[in-house]
Amino acid sequence: SKLTSLDQVEMTWRGRVHFHPLLVRILYKSRLRYYGKPEKKLDMPYQAYFEVADASGMMSMVLWNSLCPEWYNSMKVGTVLLLEQYAIKNSYPFKTQPTPGDSQMKRFTTIEISLNVRDPPTKISIIPEEMVRPEWGLPEVKYRFITRSELDDLPNNHSCDVIGLVTFVGRAERARKREHSEDFWLYRWAHAIDGTSDQPFILELFATSQPDVFTNIHPMTYLVCTQMRVVRDLTENPSSTIYLTTSNESQIFITGWHKGQPYTKDTKVKNFIQWTKTQREADQMRKTVIGGYYPFPRPPNNFLKY
Question: Is 174 exposed, middle or buried (0-12, 13-18, 19+ CB in 10 A)?
Fold first, then answer.
């Protein structure tokens, strides 16, 4: 059928109600957001953001309400979609932005694709990877993997992807979203090593919309975390308190979930797998820890400093 492209949509959207179908690949996926309030009578108050791209550039796509439980889990990073009968809206100015793996890619930030059950009822089709043709020009998913030895040189809030062998995972803890609020964030700490440094990655992993992965992180699993942000305490000794935290677009994968993921072709991921083949499992098992309270960043050694 007659397809259109994201740049064409951006140029012509103001004068149109109906658009030709779009063929796009998902490059980033946000966590699922629940925006229900007691006074609002919405059946399924859910929303999820995706960043999708074709040969002309990248644009945000929003999945609304009852389409979320139906489609969210099927729409993975790397999935190719055919979209029909979608709406175009001015983009929401305060949403988070992932850092693209391809810095040359054009971004369309003024508008977003809106997928709804009605007005108009969107038709979504997932194109199997084996049917995707090179002539469609869809971009590949690109990553920004770093090794542990590279981490100490990265600035605060830098975005990166990591892979490592889990040596420690803490219990799930809760933090209030706001003071005196009834809502909590759920998170846990983990350490992962990749053989490039004596130090592990220290990872603050907030519960994403992957509960089955979040609850099953355990020592000796291969852990991949994407779209992580560097956090360093610039006031004290900067190198001692550097860690990585999840962002709104982070995805987490553990052993058993890696098959078919786009990052398996990445060079640094292949190097890590080679390194794990040189390790003896029993040696690493002896160094692993699970559970317990993990105060981080560490409080000072004496009360005067505290």
Answer: exposed
Give the span between the Cα atoms of 246 and 57, in whole angstroms. Answer: 25
Give the tens place of pLDDT for each residue, 218-275.
999 999 999 999 998 766 655 567 999 999 999 999 999 999 999 999 999 999 999 9
Going from the C-alpha of 120 to that of each of 6, 72, 86, 110, 269, the distances in angstroms are 19, 19, 6, 21, 42
C-alpha closest to that of 81 among 50, 46, 33, 124: 124
3-class SS of residue 275: helix
For residue 143, being part of any structural domain is answered with: no
* pTM across the whole model: 0.90
Residue 60: which of 103, 126, 100, 107 has the closest Cα? Answer: 107
Same domain for 63 and 177, yes or no, is no
User: Scanning the structure block, which residue is given the tokens 């759920």?
Assistant: 186
Measured distance CA(32)–CA(30) in Å, rounded: 6
Tokens of 167: 């040596």
CATH value at residue 70: 2.40.50.140
Cβ burial 99-129 (10 Å sphere, 16+ → b, else e): ebbeeeeeebeebbbbbbeeebebebeebee
What does the block give as tokens for 47?
């929303």
Strand 252-253 with 184-193, pairing: unpaired
Strands 201-206 and 243-246: parallel
